[in-house]
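Dear support,

I submitted the protein below through the web form. The confirmation email said the job was done, but the results page showed an empty box. After a refresh the structure appeared. I'm attaching both so you can tell me whether what I see now is the final result or a partial one.
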Amino acid sequence: MTNEPLASSAKWKVRLFTKWRMLLVLCLVGVVVLSAFHFGDHEIEVQVTSPTIEDMESTISATGTVVPLNDFAARATFAGIVDKIPVQLGQRVRPGEMLVQMRDQYAESRVANARAALVTAQLNDNNLRMNGSREDQIGVLSDVERAQIDQASAERTIAALKQLQQIGSASDAEISASAQRLQTANAAVEAATQRLHARYRPEDIKNSEAKIAADKASLVAEKVTYRNANITSPISGTVYLLPVKHYDFVQMGADLLHVADLKKLAVQANFFEPDINQLKIGETAKITWIGLPGHEWRGQIQSKPIAVTGEGVLRTGQCTVALKDDVDGLPVNTRVTVTVATQKHPHVLTLPREAVHKVGQSDFVYRVIGNRLKSVPIQIGLVSPMRVEIRKGLHPGDLIAVRGVGGKELKNNKPVKLESK
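What the results page shows now:
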C-alpha cells in the first residue's frame, strides 16, 4: 500500500515528459516546414513589361509663382485714410489715370504756393540780370538824362564865367562855385550810369540763384507729396489687386492696389542648387498649373539665378521664365510647376524606372527567360521621373520584370509566372 502512490507519481512524470518531448518535436517540424516554404524555390507572380521605343528627355523641375513682367504697386507713403478709389478691380487704366486718393486736403494748395514762390524768385532773378525791372530801368534812365542835363548846364555856365573873367566881369569865387557845381553834376552822371549798367553785385546774383534752387526743390517736394496722396498709373494695364476700400485707414507702406499688363507674365521659379548649372538662357520651359489639369504653357528662361538661399540640400536659386503663349486662364500669384528639358534623345529604347535596379555603380534588370528571372546588366542613358533610356543590354521584345505581385522580392534564377489579368 505504501508504494502505490510513488508508482503512480512516477508514471505521471513519465507521461508528462513524453508529452513535452512530442510537443517540442512538433514545433521543430513546424519551423522546418515554414522555413522550407519561405526560403524554398517556390514560384512567384510578377508584373512584366517590354522596352519601348520613344523620344526621351532628361528634365528638371521647380515650383514658381506667376508674376507680371511690368507691375506697378501703389503703396501708402504715409499712414492715413483712403479718401477715393476711382477705379475698380479688373478695370483697364491708361498712364496718368487716377487710381487712389489719400486724405490730404492741403496737398494741392502747397503745390500752388511752391510754384508761385518759384515764379517770383525767377522774376526777381531776371530783374537782377537786367539791372532792375522795366519800371526801375525807366526811372534810372530818367535819372541819367536829368544828371546829363545838369552836367551840360554846369559846363556851359563855367565856360561863360571863364570868358567873363577875362574881361573882369566874373570873380574867382564865382568860378570856384561853378566848378563845384560841375563836379557834382559829373558825379551824378557817373552814379546814374553805373546804376543803369551795373546796379547789382555778383553776390546778389549768387543769392538769387540759390533762392531759385531752393524754391525748385521745395516745388519738387510738394509735387511728391501731392503724388503720394493722389496716386496715378504710370503704365497701361489692368487693376488686378485691390485690397483696400473707401475710408480704410492704412499704415505707411501698405499695398493699395496693383496694375499690370496681364498679357505679359513670367514665373519666378526656384530651382535646387544642383540643377542650376543645367539651365541655359533662352531655353524653352513647360509650365503647368494644378488648377487647370492637362493644360500647358510655353515659357523661355530669361535669367539664371545669381545667388542661392536656404541650407543643406534645400538650397535654391530663383530664375525668371517669361511666358510665351496666351496666358488667359492663368491668374497672377498662382503657384505653378516649371519643367525644363536639359537633354533630348529621339527614338531610343526605354523602360519604367521601377524595372531598373542598381548595385554599386552597375545597373541591371530582371529578364524573364522561360519561367525564371535572369539578372541582365544594362547601360542606361537619360533618366526622367518615370522612364530610363536603355543604351545596351536589351531588345524591344524582351520581357522585363517590373515588380513582384504582393510585394514579393525579385531574385536571380527565381521561378516566376506572369501576372494574371
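Response: this is the final, complete result; the empty box was a page-load delay. The mean pLDDT is 83.
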